[in-house]
Amino acid sequence: MFGSSTDEVTPCGKSQYGQRSKDRSGRNETTSYEAVSASSSCSNRGDGASSGHSALQPTAHPGQLSHSFQKGMTNSSLLASTSESSSHRGHGGTLCRTSRPAGAMGTHPARTPLTDYSITSCSSGAAASSASVMVALVEGRGLARGEIGMASLNLRCPELVLSQFADTGTYAKVITKIHILVPLEILMPDTASEKGKGTKLFNLVTENFPGVTFTAVQRKYFNERKGLEYIQQLCAPEFSTVLMEVQAKYYCLAAAAALLKYLEFVQNSVYAAKSLRVIFKGSEQTAMIDSASASHLELVVNNRDRRSEHSLLGVLNHTKTAGGARRLRSNILEPLVDVDTINMRLDSIQELLQEEELFFGLKNVIGHFLDTDQLLSVLVQIPKQETVQIAEAKITHVIQLKHTLDLVPQLKMVLKNCNTALLKAYCTSLEDSRFDVILEQIKTVINDDTTYLKGSLHMRTQKCYAVRPNINEFLDISRRAYTEIVDDIAGLVSQLGENYGFPMRTSFSTARGFFIQMRLEGVVLPEGKLPSEFIKITKHKNNYSFTTADLMKMNDRCDEALREIFHMSYVVIRQLLSTIHEHIHCLYKLSDAVSMLDMLVSLANACTLSDYVRPDFTDTLAIKQGRHPILERMAGQLPVSNNTYISEGCNFVIITGPNMSGKSTYLKQVALCQIMAQIGSYVPATYASFRVADQIFTRIGISYIIHNISDRSLIIIDELGRGTSAEEGIGLCHSVCEFLLSLKAFTLFATHFLELCQLETLYPNVENQHMGVQHTRSSDSGTDSVVYTYLLQRGCSEDRHYGLRAAEMTSLPSDLIKEAKTVVSKVSQQLLSRHHCDPETLQQRAVYHLATRLLQAARNSRLDPDSLRMYLKGLKKQYEAELQAAEQPVATL
C-alpha cells in the first residue's frame, strides 16, 4: 500500500510513524522514526485475550492454503490491449474481443486491472475524476434504434447505475453521460463494432473517446433476462425498489448482464449476494450540460493546463475525502433541478456558516475517514482464488473497517445538535444499530488497540498482530518467530555499529525490507569508503543506505514468517467477513452521509474564502454585482462585477461590444453562477435569484440546441456566424434569434453584428446591452488608446466602428483610413434609412415592460409595504419616461 515510504527502526521497543518527504528533485528522503520493536507489539497483545474468542477458531489445518500463499501467485493476469483485435477465452469459449480505436495506438491505457486494494483518505480533483468506471452500452435495433441502454459500475464503489433513454441521431446524451463517467473501459456488442461495419453509435463513441479501451462482447451476453436475475441476486435489500423501475427497461438490463459477466471474467471475483447498490438514473432528474459546454465553461478541467485548479471544481473543492470530491464533481456536471433538494442543501450550508463549532467539528471528523466507497467495494467482493496478496489486503480492509466504524460515534456527536432537515436526516441514518453489531463482531477477533496507521512498517505491524492471541495457536507461533527475527535484525545492526564505530540505524521500506542507514556528519571513513561487508550502497545527500548479506537473509526469513502470519490470519478473517456480510449494507448509509457532509463542508468553506451570497429560486434570473468565480480565484482579488436580469417578459439579451471587452467572460460568469446555485452552493454576488434550468447550452452547434431546447433552458451563444461573410452571418443569426424568441428559454446572445440590435424594436422581450469602452488620446503622441471598463451597460454599443479605431492604432496610411471611414458612413446611412422606430410599437413595448414587471413583483416580491410603494413609484416614472421617448423616436441600428 505504501510502497514508497521508508521507516527507521531502533531496538527501543516503541513505535512512532512519521511522514515521507521529498526533496526538490522529487526523490524520497528518508524520514527518521522512533520505531517499533516487534517484540513490544507482541507483548502488548500477548496474553490478555479471553477464551471467549474460540468460537471463530478455524478447523482447517494451517497447510490448507499454503501452496498458493507461499508462491504468492496472483489470481489472474491482466488482459492486455493490442493494436489488433484479440480474443479472450473464459470458461467454455470466447467472451470478448478487445480493440483500440484508430489513432489511439501507443497511448492506449492498459485493460481493466484487478481491483485496487489500496484505500487512502486523499482527496483531490484528480482522485475524483481518475478512470475506474466500467461501462456497458447497447442500442436497440430496427424500430427501436435510438433507444439506449447503459450500465456502469465504479470499481472503487459497489454501485451499479442503470440508464435507459431515447437519443437523437447525434447521440449527444450518450456522449455527455460517458464524459461524466470518465470510463476506463467501454463494452459494446460485437455486432455493433464489426470491422468496417460499425454502427453510427460505435463510430461516434470511439471518435470522442480515443483514449478509452473498447471491448466487443458477444451479443448473447447482452441478455435482459440474465440481467434481471443478476440484479435480483446482487441488489441490497435497501435498494430493492429499483426492481420495479427496471423490469421493463430491457436495454439497460441487457447492458447490466454483459457488464457483470465481464467483470467476473476479468476480475476473477464475484460480488457477494445482496451486496450492491443498484440505482436507475433517468435523464430528467438532473440538468443536462453537454460535454462541449462543460469543457467550454471549464467546469472540472482548466483548458490551458489540466493540472491547474483554475476550474469551477478547483474553486469549490475543499473536500477531505475522495468520495466527497467525486460527489462534488458529479454534481457540477449534473446539477439538481429539484428546488426543495437544493434549498435543503442551502439551509445546511447556512447553518454550517453560522455555527463554527459544527463547521470545524465536521471538518475535523470527516478528515479522518478513508474512502468508504472503495472500502465497501472490496469488502463485498469474493475472490475466486486466494493468494498472499489477497490475504494481506483483506486483513487491511478489516482494520480499515474498524477504523471507519470507530469514527461513527464521533460523527454522531458532532451532528446531534444540528437544526436543518438534511443534517438531521444524516444524523438519524447514523443511528443504525448495525454499525455497533459489525464493530462488536470485529472486536471479538481483532485487538482493541489495532488501528489504521500511515507508514509501511507500522501498518505491517498492525496487520501482523491484528488478530487476537489464543484464537489460532499456529498464528501465535508464527508471530513469535517474526518477533524474534525483527529483534535479531535490530541486534545485528546494533552490533555492526559497535564493531565499526559508525552511527548506524535500522530503517525499513516496502521495496527493500529492513536495511541500514547512516549519516556522514562527523564520520571518517577509512580510505573514504565503507567496509566491503556492506553491499547495495546508495548515497543521498549526507545519508548512506546499505545492507549486508546476513541482513538480506534475515529479510527473507522475515518475509516467510509474514506469509505464514497472513495465511493464518486470513483463515480467521475470512470467517469474520462471512459473518458481517449480512450487515454490511449499512455502510452505504455511512458512505452517502460522509460524502454529502464532506461536499457541504467544502461548499461552506468556499464561502469563507470569498464574499458569496445565498441564492433564491424564482422565475427570474437576477444577479446583482455578480463575479466570475474562476477569474476571482485566479486574480486573487475581486474582478469587475456586473448585474444580470432576465425574466419571462425579457428573456432574450443581445450583448455587443468590441473584442476583449469582456463579453465571453460575462457569458461564462452567468452560466457558472447558475450551475453553482443548482448544486446548492452560494454564489459570488451581493444578491442572486435563479430560475431552475433543465439544460444549459453554450455555442456547440445550433442544430443540437434547436433539437434539444426547452422552455426552461439557459442558452449562451457567443458570436454565432463569425466565420462567414457579414451578410450570411447576419442572416443566420437573425433566423436563429427569431426561432429562439418563439420560446421561453433564457438566452444571452453576444454578437458583433450590430444589425441584430434592431430586434429590440420588433420584439418586446428583447433587450440590448453592451460592454462599455472608453477612448483616450495621448496629449504627447496624439495617438488613441482604448480602455476597457468591463461594465455591462444598457443599449446597443455606441462604438460601432471599433475595427476602424483599431486600424487607426496601426501603421496603415491615413489616406486608407479616411477612405474606409467615408465608405462606412455611406453604408450606415443607407441602413439607417431603412429602419424606423414606430412610435406605436414603442408605446406597446412600454406597456409590455410595465405589465411584466408588475407580474414579477406580484409573484416574487418580499418587500415590506413602504419599500413596495417606492418600487411601484419607480416603475411608474420609468413607464412615463418610456412613453415620452416614444413620442420622439430615434432610428437606431
Automatic annotation (TrEMBL):
Which intervals hold domain DNA mismatch repair proteins mutS family? 713-729
Q: Where along the chain is composition biased (Polar residues)?
A: 65-75
Keywords of the record = ATP-binding, DNA-binding, Meiosis, Nucleotide-binding
Q: Does the keyword Flavoprotein apply?
A: no
Determine if ATP-binding is one of this entry's keywords. Answer: yes
Q: Mind telling me which Gene3D superfamilies this protein's record contains? A: 1.10.1420.10, MutS, connector domain, P-loop containing nucleotide triphosphate hydrolases
Q: Which GO terms describe its biological process?
A: mismatch repair; reciprocal meiotic recombination
The family database entries (SUPFAM superfamilies) matched by this protein are listed as: DNA repair protein MutS, domain II (SSF53150), DNA repair protein MutS, domain III (SSF48334), P-loop containing nucleoside triphosphate hydrolases (SSF52540)
Q: Which Pfam families match?
A: MutS_II, MutS_III, MutS_IV, MutS_V
Q: Which PROSITE patterns match?
A: DNA_MISMATCH_REPAIR_2
From the Swiss-Prot or TrEMBL record, what is one GO molecular function term? Answer: ATP-dependent DNA damage sensor activity
Composition-biased stretches, type Low complexity, lie in: 29-43, 76-85
Entry GO terms, CC: nucleus
Q: Where is this region: Disordered?
A: 1-111
- Extract the PANTHER family matched here: DNA MISMATCH REPAIR PROTEIN MUTS FAMILY MEMBER, MUTS PROTEIN HOMOLOG 4
Family under the similarity heading: Belongs to the DNA mismatch repair MutS family.
Can you name this protein?
MutS protein-like protein 4
